[in-house]
Design brief:
Elements lengths: L8 E2 L11 E5 L19 E6 L3 H17 L3 E6 L3 H10 L6 E3 L3 H9 L8 H10 L2 H5 L2 E2 L2 E2 L2 E2 L12 H7 L7 H13 L17 H24 L12
């Protein structure tokens, strides 16, 4: 990844539940000026992108822009990391930021933007977001009324997989409410079976499925207003709505 001082990141974020990924841009020094968003990659024809999308998904991501890359005579160099959340701040502080980043969390983007490490989205990006996305989606990439990124993709995090044959065999009905789900969980446990199997392991990012579920539950039980106040730290983790 290239080292370039005073370059602010054009980043991407993923929202919780139906997550939005947004493209935005970084700065090597706090509050640094540097090149405008339209200048990213123009000096040497190379654009660096940093994100969490890895393995097969990363290969498909790179295939998705391959034709555009060739038509515009640029070299897009994508790097993925399971330690993105921990590393992106260090890269920004050390002046070794990518041109673009794909953020999995709006809060992380907002944190870097508040410290001057993000570049506002250029007018062309802002126009595309305005024409193609709702205000709610645009808000994921907006900090203090400034747009820093465009939504890229959505990820649904609330699916629960079950065995229809096992349910039929035991006479279990598919729960339709949260209380029904809790009751079924207890019923399965009382039968001597382990009711849940959840994979939380993900190397340095271990635990993220759990945090996504917590966020989903906050949205469902307490509503979007409480969720937004929680993201803004106006509602604390110790608040009854979150606990």
């Amino acid at each position: 990844m290239r080292s370039r001082v005073n370059r602010r990141l054009i980043a991407g974020i993923a929202a919780i539940g139906a997550g939005a990924l947004v493209l935005a841009g970084c700065s090597g020094t706090e509050g640094g000026g540097g090149d405008g968003p339209g200048d990213v990659g123009e000096a040497d024809g190379v654009v660096t992108i940093y994100g969490t999308i890895a393995d097969t998904e990363a290969e498909l991501l790179e295939q998705s822009w391959a034709d555009w890359e060739e038509e515009n005579d640029i070299d897009i160099q994508y790097e993925s990391s399971k330690e993105f959340e921990a590393q992106i701040g260090s890269l920004a502080q050390g002046g070794n930021t990518p041109d673009l980043a794909i953020f999995p969390q709006p809060g992380l983007l907002a944190d870097l933007a508040s410290r001057g490490y993000m570049q506002p989205a250029p007018d062309g990006v802002a126009d595309n977001v305005k024409n193609g996305w709702s205000e709610d989606w645009a808000a994921y990439g907006t900090v203090d009324d400034t747009l820093y990124g465009a939504p890229l993709m959505a990820s649904v995090k609330g699916f629960i997989w079950y065995s229809p044959s096992l349910f039929e065999e035991n006479g279990w009905e598919i729960p339709e409410t949260w209380d029904d789900l809790l009751a079924l969980t207890q019923t399965i446990a009382d039968s001597g079976r382990v009711p849940w199997c959840v994979g939380f392991g993900s190397d340095a990012a271990t635990g993220w499925p759990g945090t996504d579920w917590v966020e989903d539950l906050v949205l469902r039980q307490s509503g979007p207003d409480v969720y937004d106040q929680w993201v803004a730290n106006d509602v604390k983790f110790t608040d009854p709505e979150i606990k």
